[in-house]
Amino acid sequence: NCFPLAAGISSLYYLPMKQIQVTIHGQTLSLPIGSTVEDVLLKAQVKETCRHPVYEDNPFVGALVNHELHSCSRSLVADCTVEPVRLFGDMGKRIYRHSICYLLCAAVSMLYPARRLVIGHSLGDGYYFSFDDELTLSRNDILAIEQAMRTLVEQNLDIEEITLTYENALTYFEQNHFDQTAALLSTRNEPKVNLYRLSGYLDISYEPLLSKTGLMRVWELKPYQERGMLLRYPRSHNIKALDPFVDNPLLFSVFKEYKAWGSILGVQSLGQLNQMGNQNTVESFIRLAEALQQKKIANIADQINLHSSVKAVLIAGPSSSGKTTFAHKLGIQLQVLGKKTIKISLDSYYLPPSQAPKDEFNKPDLEALEALDVAKFQADIASLFRGEAVHLCKFDFKTTTRSYEAEPVQMDKRTILIIEGIHGMNPQLTASLESDLLFRVYISALTQLNLDDHNRISTTDNRIIRRLIRDNRTRGTNAETTLNMWPSVQRGEDRYIFPYQNNADVLINSALDYELGVLTTYAQPLLKMVKPSAGAAYETARRLLRFLEHVNPIPDTLVPPDSLLREFIGGSEFDVI
């Protein structure tokens, strides 16, 4: 073995030999309790088992066990239905991406057992990793790590899901310099901890992993910035090959800035945030987090003020990024600088759904730019720039009809338009307007917190949680409906928002490092109402619930009334719905 086993890790939990009934592909099998998903596939004589390393065969890489996603090495302890999950698919993609991160961490542990590797964040089609020390990360180091990873792949080793006692797991992570993992475990009290084992290397993964290293053949490890490396993965449209690398320095600079701030305050992981709550210091941390965000908004207002020609600020970002509250708060900061503001939502320019373009499912594509009356928008903005009075549009989403504000608005030399909507960065929206009259702000919730050393908190999951809370509060929408709608929201973001984010003059992070502690008490009851009959929505709900189990609650009474977080939980002092 390449990895030394920590002392005491052999104390695993075992189950008595009894039979369970497993239904797969319409047949019911009888197996000993404790059999793995892989055992089920073998007995069912499924050709492409989880151990098959050939990509062309699209092997199974996990399974929905009673509609909940598990690895092929998961032991089954009760009667269940098993639906195999293939590599080429949304769930297979998630398993693959988490598995190559695990592979990287295992290789680093083999080569540099005394150094602490930390996952940073996602960047395009990759994850950023760096060492939490002052030593350099040379190209030779990265080549050595890459070679160790390739060797593990060629050996086609088992990755087993195992269980340790709480005490043994905590001891292992403390002894092996997994500081943030130990911090997270210190705020938990379960009697046992589920881990994955590759030879003598153990680690937690909050998502299922592949059962064989031989399945991880498509990835790239490349140097990135001064001290880090990027682990790249294949995109969904072609999991057999990598796309050409496209850098996003603006996004990286924002992550780097917030990571540095989190390091100064001593909160870089969920475990540290939980510990802070236990120590009754979270209230002051909330004030600091809010003050930082307020300062960033004030800085953006200062930048806008330096450009005397700017007449309109365009704000864009993906769903649940906090565009509306940010627009209000930016308006206040501009007024402090002596400006007058007029707020405009691009949603007011929607066409009736019957006039919207159709998506690939022949349904109205309300995320497309062509779903807006772009000509009317451009005409209104041009009229306002000329100093003319304009009755702005209103769109009633219940009746899908347009009306107009009774009172006209008009600009003078001190007035700046604040325009928010998902298409704010798209150059087609403002093609008829002079570029020097416009300032573009991209906003997104880019949490810098990790779960622990090697597991990041997905910014997409953070936005899903925000959205399902807000939709339930403002529209009475249940979590199942919101989760079922989310794939179409993501398709729209991939097509109409993310490709234009680098057109922004400035990017702001709307995530507040404490927010998950507040959101969890709202989200958990909603997610628990999603039942197994909900299909894909149930799998997502279960995954989010497993994640939120690690979050210690923070009272919403500590959230200021002008906080951007209030846009989602309610109680905002702004007119936000």
3D architecture notes:
By secondary structure, the protein is α/β, with parallel strands linked by helices. The protein is built from 15 helices and 19 strands. Helix 2 (90-111) packs across helix 3, helix 8 crosses helix 9 (323-336) and helix 13 crosses helix 14. The longest helix is centred in the middle third of the chain and has 25 residues, at 282-306. The chain is globular and about 80 Å long.
Which strand order does the major sheet show?
A: 2-1-5-3-4
Number of helices: 15
Please mark out the parts with pLDDT under 50 across 5 or more consecutive residues, or reply none.
11-15
Terminal CA distance? 58 Å
Principal-axes shape call: globular
| Rg on CA atoms, Å | 25 Å
Strand content: 15-25%
Helix content: 25-40%
Q: Largest sheet at a glance?
A: 5 strands, mixed
Number of strands: 19
Based on secondary structure, the structural category is alpha/beta
Q: Kindly state the mean pLDDT as a whole number?
A: 90
Map the helices and strands.
Layout: E1 19-24, E2 27-32, H1 37-43, E3 60-65, E4 68-70, E5 80-86, H2 90-111, E6 117-122, E7 126-131, H3 139-155, E8 160-165, H4 166-175, H5 179-186, E9 192-198, E10 201-203, E11 220-224, E12 228-232, H6 249-265, H7 270-278, H8 282-306, E13 312-316, H9 323-336, E14 340-345, H10 374-385, E15 393-396, E16 401-404, E17 415-420, E18 438-444, H11 459-475, H12 479-496, E19 506-509, H13 515-528, H14 536-548, H15 566-569
Helix pairs in contact: 2-3, 4-5, 5-7, 8-9, 11-12, 11-13, 12-14, 13-14
